[in-house]
């Protein structure tokens, strides 16, 4: 199951896993773009089995509806790839009152994993793979402001905060799900030339355009996601942060277990769930 699977590294991850024989469940926002993505994958894998689940992941209600739909059509989830993510150039709140970068990049990943926890356990040994970023090193926020970012510190700091949350989620879910034989790891995909920055500032878009000849292709950027989702080499490996298929050391703050637990408790409260 892959979120944000209609383009970029999400699409390339889906294509590679389909080539390995995986049945795909692709969570996308737009049906036409999702159907185009499946048609694209079929050019390489004609017999791919793929389902679309439509959801606006900025909305916690739609995330929960997506979880319910996946539980309806699947009896197990072997791999959950939390891929969806964007950077936003200004502060705006979602329908739930959360800052949208935090809502999409972290809360949606937390909540969809919660919704699929029993299907992941049913498929054990199973895996959660969460796309973070080296941008987590630029995180700046206060805990009482994380969900709404009223004290906006700029797109890079806010995006960095959401990516730091991705690593904390991977660490804490690994700890909590170890007995269920569900592994959870985060990764940095590299600097990828995709549509990821489409909602960033004009300066960010211009910089991305100028740098594009030097950036990884989406296919290259998907490499570590594919590796963590499918390689036997990482069977049983959990709670790690990977770069270029290798374990790497994230920032000191990202390695703070107390803050990871604090985020987990906050996420439960914001999503209105209890996940012991």
Written overview of the protein:
This protein is an alpha/beta fold. It has one domain (54-271): Rossmann fold (3-Layer(aba) Sandwich), CATH 3.40.50.720. It is 44% helix and 13% strand. It is built from ten helices and eight strands. The protein has helices at residues 8-19, 31-44, 60-73, 100-115, 117-122, 155-177, 202-211, 218-221, 223-230, 257-271, and strands spanning 2-3, 24-28, 50-54, 79-82, 126-131, 182-188, 241-243, 246-248. The strands form two sheets. Strands 4-5-6-7-8 form a five-stranded mixed sheet, with helices on both faces. It has a three-stranded parallel sheet with strand order 1-2-3, sandwiched between helices. Helix 3 packs parallel to helix 4. The radius of gyration is 17 Å and the shape is globular. The two termini are 23 Å apart.
* Number of DSSP-assigned strands: 8
Total helical segments: 10
**In whole angstroms, how far apart are the ends?**
23 Å
CATH topology title: Rossmann fold
**Percentage of β-strand residues:** 5-15%
Strand order in the sheet with the most strands: 4-5-6-7-8
Order of H and E elements: EHEHEHEHHEHEHHHEEH
Detail the poorly predicted runs. Answer: none
Outline type = globular
Give the count of structural domains: 1
Summing up helix and strand content along with how strands pair, one would put the structural category as: alpha/beta
Q: What does the average pLDDT come to?
A: 93
Gyration radius (Cα, Å) is 17 Å
- Relevant CATH superfamily: NAD(P)-binding Rossmann-like Domain
Share of residues in helices: 40-55%
How would you sum up the major sheet? 5 strands, mixed
């Amino acid at each position: 199951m892959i979120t944000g699977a209609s383009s970029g590294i999400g699409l390339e991850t889906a294509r590679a896993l389909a080539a390995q024989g995986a049945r795909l469940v692709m969570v996308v926002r737009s049906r036409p773009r999702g159907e185009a993505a499946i048609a694209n994958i079929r050019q390489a894998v004609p017999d791919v089995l793929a389902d679309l689940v439509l959801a606006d992941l900025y909305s916690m209600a739609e995330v929960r509806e997506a979880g319910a739909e996946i539980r309806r059509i699947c009896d197990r989830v072997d791999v959950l790839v939390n891929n969806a993510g964007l950077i936003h150039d200004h502060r705006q709140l979602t329908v739930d009152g959360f800052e949208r970068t935090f809502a999409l990049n972290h809360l949606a990943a937390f909540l969809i994993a919660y919704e699929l926890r029993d299907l992941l356990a049913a498929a054990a040994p199973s895996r959660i793979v969460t796309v973070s970023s080296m941008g987590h090193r630029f995180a700046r926020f206060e805990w009482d402001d994380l969900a709404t970012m009223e004290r906006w510190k700029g797109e890079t700091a806010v995006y960095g905060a959401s990516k730091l949350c991705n690593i904390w989620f991977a660490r804490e879910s690994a700890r909590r799900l170890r007995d269920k034989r569900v592994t959870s790891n985060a990764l940095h995909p590299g600097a990828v030339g995709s549509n990821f920055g489409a909602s960033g500032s004009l300066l960010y878009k211009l910089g991305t355009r100028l740098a594009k000849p030097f950036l990884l292709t989406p296919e290259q950027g998907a490499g570590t996601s594919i590796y963590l989702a499918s390689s036997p080499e990482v069977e049983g490996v959990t709670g790690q942060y990977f770069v270029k298929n290798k374990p790497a050391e994230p920032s000191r703050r990202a390695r703070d277990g107390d803050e990871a637990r604090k985020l987990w408790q906050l996420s439960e409260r914001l999503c209105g769930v209890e996940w012991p």
